[in-house]
Amino acid sequence: MKKTKIVQSYWSKAYKNSLNYGWAFRETHYMSWALSCLQLKQFYNEVELVTDSEGAEFLVNKLHLPYTSCKTTLDKLTDENTAIWALGKIAAYEEQQVPFIHVDGDIYIWKPFPKRIENAAILAQNIEKNYPFNINLLNEMHEKKFSFPFPLSSGDMCETNMGIVGGHDLEFFRGYCSFVYSFLDTNRDKLEKLASGVSSINTIMEQYLMHEYAKRCGKKVEYLISSLPNTEMYKLTLFSLLPRDVSFIHNIGSNKKREITSDRLARLLYCAYPEYYAHISNLLKQKTI
Fold first, then answer.
1. Closest to 84 (Cα-Cα) out of 173, 17, 137
2. Domain count, the chain
3. pLDDT score recorded for residue 1
4. Which residue numbers in the chain have pLDDT < 70?
5. CATH (domain of 78)
6. Contact 163/225 with Cβ under 8 angstroms?
7. Local structure of residue 213 (DSSP, 8 states)
């Protein structure tokens, strides 16, 4: 049976909004993408990159990452607000024509995804429940008259972490993408009013709407990690547990800004792929990246 296609997306203009691309050091951004892609290629024959022209130049032509195909679909986002970085991922989901697993560039795997994930109609990383920041943001959006295509629940606020996401139900993903675009278009005039800035809309737009849309469609989401309390999310970032105790790392949130994270990631790349480590180091010395 043919392996599910892996997809990664890279909207270059959105990444430039963050100092050092969100990491402690800009070189870690380069090394993260290299390690993520190379580890995926260890287990999957087809790893597609959906990006823009600048991203293709960076990841394929400069870093020489071995993607099996590269599409510059995200050039169509030229006129979009780059603070809404989730649009790059949504556009990548939308164009898929065969079953897929989208994997973020800060995720590294040490074995294939389980068959239940590869064969799922809809899959994602895990459920996040009652994050205080997002609860407050949702309340603020309600107060500022944001329009939602469904009544807001008074119960737990659940979101779907989409570090990995995909599946065989392509019709669901087309509907989900339309759902997100409709929400965004209806509320564009209110985004600048958010106290924490336009970028705060991303997790609501991507993760909260995903969970709500699946629930309202009566669809089951197969989660890679079935139960993970908010207080234990940090365990996904522990390089020290590789490869014996864990086979999946996701560098979430503020962990990227820790210098020790950059050091450990660089060491991993150096040990596993010394030629890529050397290549990136040379590019940095030559100031071509």
1. 17
2. 1
3. 55
4. 1-2, 229-231
5. 3.90.550
6. no
7. H
